[in-house]
Amino acid sequence: MSPLRRIIRNATVSKAVPVAKAFKPYPLGRDPSSLPKLKWVSISETDNRSISLRYRVTAMIEMSLLDKAANLSRLAVMDDFRVDRDTHTATNVTSTTLLSSTATFCSTDVYMLLTKALVDAERFDEACDLVSSMSSCSFMVYDILIRGFLDVGNFVKASQIFEELKGLDSKLPGREYHTAIAIFNVSFMNYFFNQGKDEEAMEILATLEEAQVLKPIVGNRVLDVLVWHGKDTEAWELFEEMIEICDSETIDIMSDYFSEKTVPFERLRKTCYRNMIVSLCEHEKVSDAEKLFAEMFTDVDVEDLFVGPDVLTFRAMINGYVKVGRFDDAIMTLNKMRVLYIRKLAIHHAP
């Protein structure tokens, strides 16, 4: 049995209050007169810039100005904002509570953003209230809550949430269950690394199902933890296993290693070529970048000019050539990009 399972099954945790009781359910059916009075909010509190209400609320939340976000979000019910298709969130946030009040506007992304803001502000009671109000369970939201408790050293509370979510009466959708459990385990693995308990962390890594680790959403999280804690050998071994399914996040996490390691390019997905080319050029491995750049043209028919490198890829190659002093190649690549995109424009605007 892994250390994680031993710890969360010990007497301290098993006697803890169940999460269902720890969370305060959303108070449906209360007498309206018992609800706290909210300050009147006027549309005059916003300026005349053509910025969506969602963006305004999001900006306030990211700056941890939750009360200001609360006031702005209440404008979502007004006719002036109902026609704005980008207005997806309307939440009732006060200085003491944060509960979803208009389900029509709420989404998983909004719950993630609000939960993170509350966790960062260490307003955990309100974060629990918010998470328990979700109409459908999102493991990404719960993971933010679990990581928040772990970050402040409340291992017992994090374990309570984890145990409830993996139990027989789990709220997790069946299709997401195994992925969610893997994500939660990675959060505990990171916690043990932070505590200097590398052996326990590596045991959790060993228990992760290969089928889950080879999904970018899980594999990238594992890679990030391994790289952050200096487990270079394990990180590179995992990257080589993931290279056929890697995405841009995978490349970003591992980019610092490309100047030191031999990358198995033949197994690399073409969707990762641009990110790999950018990373190789930054590390002055222009010859390797050239090979990938050339392969991006191999499957392009003469008339199919909308396939192939985009502007960012061309720019990376040009910068790479300049960095190593190959100015003629940089000019040739620039001219090639100009010709390609002039043709694209001509085709796009042709009658």
TrEMBL record:
Does the record bear Ubl conjugation in its keywords? Answer: no
List keywords of the entry alphabetically. Repeat
Q: Which Gene3D superfamilies match?
A: Tetratricopeptide repeat domain
Is Repeat one of the keywords?
yes
PPR repeat ranges per the UniProt record: 310-344
Q: Which PANTHER family match?
A: PENTATRICOPEPTIDE (PPR) REPEAT-CONTAINING PROTEIN, PF01535'-RELATED, PLASTID TRANSCRIPTIONALLY ACTIVE CHROMOSOME 2-LIKE PROTEIN
Recorded protein name is Predicted protein
